[in-house]
């Protein structure tokens, strides 16, 4: 990595936020890598941090014509249990977020969609990982054949928005991207039934 790189905020009026004095790769895996960065932060303080580097993910909220929303349930090793969540997956090299969303929807659920709407973009845990997530609403759904990865055992279930909300309020949803998806669709003009 470059030795002296300016960290910048995206958007209009971009200004320097800090300076990377040194960045060294300490791990490279199939899904993410880790760097140890020595940085001069705004205000002049020098710190060293480990940062998880990730290509970003597409998150999909499939919505049927009757307004029902699809959640998937699968085992997640870090939390040692199966959880309800939105379908999602990592972007492949050179892949746009929308292309990744189309691919992941088909692979995990067997569905394809005619209409796509970006509901939002967010960083799920910016304190230590640079992963960015793009959340898409998928409508005009067509059934097909799912092609999950060899280690994926995915259950699907359709929920009304009220059922989805009850699951959120009861603590049955603890996945951040799925909570964000619920709140974005609840506040959206694309809300099921509208």
Topology at a glance:
Elements: E1 5-8, E2 16-28, E3 32-40, E4 46-54, E5 57-62, E6 69-76, E7 81-85, E8 87-90, H1 97-109, E9 112-122, E10 133-142, E11 155-159, H2 161-169, H3 176-187
Parallel strand pairs: 5-10
Antiparallel strand pairs: 1-2, 2-3, 3-4, 5-8, 6-7, 6-11, 9-10
- The shape, in one word, is elongated
Largest sheet: 4 strands, antiparallel
Along the chain, the helix and strand elements come as EEEEEEEEHEEEHH
Named CATH architecture of the largest domain: Alpha-Beta Complex
**CATH superfamily heading of the largest domain:** Nucleoside Triphosphate Pyrophosphohydrolase
CATH class of the largest domain: Alpha Beta
Strand order of the largest sheet: 1-2-3-4
Separation, N- and C-terminal Cα atoms = 48 Å
Helicity, as a percent range: 10-25%
Structural category is alpha+beta
What name does CATH use for the topology of the largest domain?
A: Nucleoside Triphosphate Pyrophosphohydrolase
Q: Residue ranges: pLDDT <50 for 5 or more in a row? A: 6-15
What gyration radius follows from the Cα positions, in whole Å?
19 Å
Mean pLDDT: 88
Task: Please tally the β strands and state the result.
Answer: 11
Structure description:
The protein is 18% helix and 43% strand. It has two domains: 5-54, no CATH class; 57-187, Nucleoside Triphosphate Pyrophosphohydrolase (Alpha-Beta Complex). It has helices at 97-109, 161-169, 176-187, and strands at residues 5-8, 16-28, 32-40, 46-54, 57-62, 69-76, 81-85, 87-90, 112-122, 133-142, 155-159. It is of the alpha+beta class and 194 residues long. The strands form three sheets. The chain has a four-stranded antiparallel β-sheet, with no helix packed on it. The protein contains three helices and eleven strands. The radius of gyration is 19 Å and the shape is elongated.
């Amino acid at each position: 990595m470059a030795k002296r790189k300016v960290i910048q905020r995206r958007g209009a009026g971009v200004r320097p936020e800090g300076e990377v004095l040194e960045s060294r790769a300490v791990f490279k895996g199939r899904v993410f890598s880790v760097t140890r960065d020595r940085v001069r932060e705004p205000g002049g303080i020098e710190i060293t941090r480990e940062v998880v580097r990730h290509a970003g993910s597409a998150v999909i909220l499939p919505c049927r014509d009757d307004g029902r929303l699809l959640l998937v349930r699968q085992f997640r090793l870090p939390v040692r249990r199966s959880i309800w969540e939105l379908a999602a997956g990592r972007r492949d090299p050179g892949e746009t977020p929308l292309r990744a969303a189309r691919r992941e929807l088909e692979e995990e659920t067997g569905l394809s969609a005619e209409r796509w709407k970006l509901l939002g973009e967010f960083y799920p845990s910016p304190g230590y990982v640079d992963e960015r997530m793009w959340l898409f609403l998928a409508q005009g759904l067509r059934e097909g054949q799912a092609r999950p990865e060899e280690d994926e055992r995915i259950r699907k279930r359709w929920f009304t928005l009220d059922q989805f909300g009850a699951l959120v309020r009861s603590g049955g949803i603890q996945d951040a991207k799925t909570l964000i998806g619920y709140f974005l669709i609840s506040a959206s003009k694309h809300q099921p039934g509208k």
